[in-house]
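Hello again,

I reread your note about wanting to compare the complex against the isolated chains. To keep things tidy I'm splitting this into two emails, and this first one only covers the full assembly. Below are the input lines as submitted, including protein chains and any nucleic acid or small-molecule components. They are followed by the predicted structure of everything together. The single-chain runs will come separately.
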Amino acid sequence: MADIGAHSAGKRVKNGHETLAVSPGMTLAESLRQKLEGAIAAGHLEPGSRLDEQEIAQRFGVSRTPVREAFRLMAANNLVELRGRQGATVRSIKAQALIEMFQVMAELEGLCARLAARRVSQAWGAEIGDIHQRLVAAGETGDIDVFYDINQEFHEAIYEASRNSFLADQTRKLRNQVAAYRSRVTRMPNRIADTVREHEAIMQAILAHDPERAHSAMRDHVNLLGDNLLDFLAAFE
Amino acid sequence: MADIGAHSAGKRVKNGHETLAVSPGMTLAESLRQKLEGAIAAGHLEPGSRLDEQEIAQRFGVSRTPVREAFRLMAANNLVELRGRQGATVRSIKAQALIEMFQVMAELEGLCARLAARRVSQAWGAEIGDIHQRLVAAGETGDIDVFYDINQEFHEAIYEASRNSFLADQTRKLRNQVAAYRSRVTRMPNRIADTVREHEAIMQAILAHDPERAHSAMRDHVNLLGDNLLDFLAAFE
DNA sequence: ATACCAATATAAGTATACATATCGGCCCTC
DNA sequence: GAGGGCCGATATGTATACTTATATTGGTAT
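Full-complex prediction:
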């Protein structure tokens, strides 16, 4: 066995293979999960592609056991599909399933916005305002990667403002599941301008403490993104 | 190794230990997951209690490997908590978390009902009517376990009628997570009569193709159950 | 030539052996 | 006598060996 994680905290392992961060109370399986989920979200692992236990084990210089456990963990987040006795594949989401997922996501994010509208404080108003301004700035410079990150921040801030950590968790997970597909859409022609406008409407409704308007504004925003995404995918097939 | 699942399909294993159903394309880990999840939902495994790998492995006459994998699978469903290097425990849900979960569940089940109202067919109307009649009958004879099962059937029928299999899945999972707590509430004084009345309102709204009414009726139904549950728990602490 | 069966190969599932971290008890010191 | 540190026991994490199912390929028969 490789001399992994035995000594001090915050180590890194390099076995002549790929590096793997190993934090204090962290197991190899958990590290692998993070690494692989990141690769999936970033699109480095194509949806539908097979995950070979042995190959991945070799690549990171570990045995099959933690790899298998990481697969189980990821299956929990619906990021990989386990077909008994037939291996694991990166979950490939069909257009129909994406429609369904956006329908649910619109509702959950809408609920976040509604709760946020009921509960926001003054301080939060300043925070979201700052985020939005940075989003506008990124939109003007056209730096798409930064725009994508700040967009994420905006939604995250609303999750937190809902003060329902379970809801925040569920919504985040769902957002994560479609991340691999979403990231391809951010680059569409009018998406940046539309996003800025839609965010404005959401923000105003929340700050005006209008739950119903916040709900529908957010729902529309998510649904529009979903529609864009489906248009985008349709152009490919 | 015990001679498990090696030969024909649909077997049962008995090693002088507890029996474990092993279906055709099913792994031991999956079987264990089902068995243990059932035990949790039925309340045979107390929330917060520790799950000992070795003990469970011995009890079912298997090695620790499939037991560990079953734990990971269950962690995916939020039914057990894995604290690295410190074992697995049956997830214990605090009152605050239950409130949050019911808030989300009300919204999801409400969405199911809304979609169902838009999409139901004639045949489905007959089916849900039959289920409801059986629920009423079970309520009159006072057989609570049967009532509980038919109640589940009713909700399940609406999940399916939403024609959104992702939504159905999410809702089912959430329902499963709170099952261990819900089951204690079914036995409350007026719950049976209330449930029947509330189901009637939901059913009528759906059959009348009134999405908004179906949504709010279902949301109220779930919220009332949540309130009852919290009252029940409060009486204990 | 195609379809079906059989045999073999490959990869998933399971068992077991080994490494290592956490927890509890006991002893020593202050 | 109490508190802290050290040591050992126990259970989790990981590696490896072995079993078994599924898929693929080749051959044969129709």
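For quick reference: Residues 1, 4-5, 27-29, 62-66, 69, 85-86 of chain A lie near DNA strand D (CB under 10 Å from a C1').

B.
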